[in-house]
Amino acid sequence: MGTKTIQQSIESIQQSIDKMIGTVSRLSEEIIRRKPSENEWSIIQILCHVLEAVPYWIGEIAQIKANPAELWGRNHLQEARLAAVADTDRRTVDAVVKELDALKSQVEKELGALDQDTLAITATSRNPNFGTKPISFIIDHLIDEHVSKHCGQIDRSLSKLNE
Description:
The protein is mainly alpha-helical. Helix content is 66%, strand content 4%. The chain has a two-stranded antiparallel sheet. Helix 3 runs parallel beside helix 5 (93-112). The N and C termini lie far apart (40 Å).
């Protein structure tokens, strides 16, 4: 893994999730559900995307472990990805926050079970921009960095909503 150990990555992901939960806990439901603009996600959509994306990438890691010859990944139009942000009106904020909290344990369990040999397994992505990458790339960029970026997205959304 880049410069982080797997445990450091797990802790970083969990800290980002804790930051999201902490931010949301101080907000009204109206703010959580309001979009900063027509083309941007609401905070609840961001949270629901994280709830879908992290398990998706953990599943991709399991698939690579089982069969490194198969292509991995998806594009932005993948059905489950789109559904996660489309169905947020039916979700309660409390339920989403509880799922986020539970996601931390899933991250610990699934990623914590990976050893150095597994992290080094390489496979080719469906996305030509990624090419062939090790499992550690998925953890570093598509889980850890991705979740962290969504923390920043929540902060940017809040600054726009508070203007």
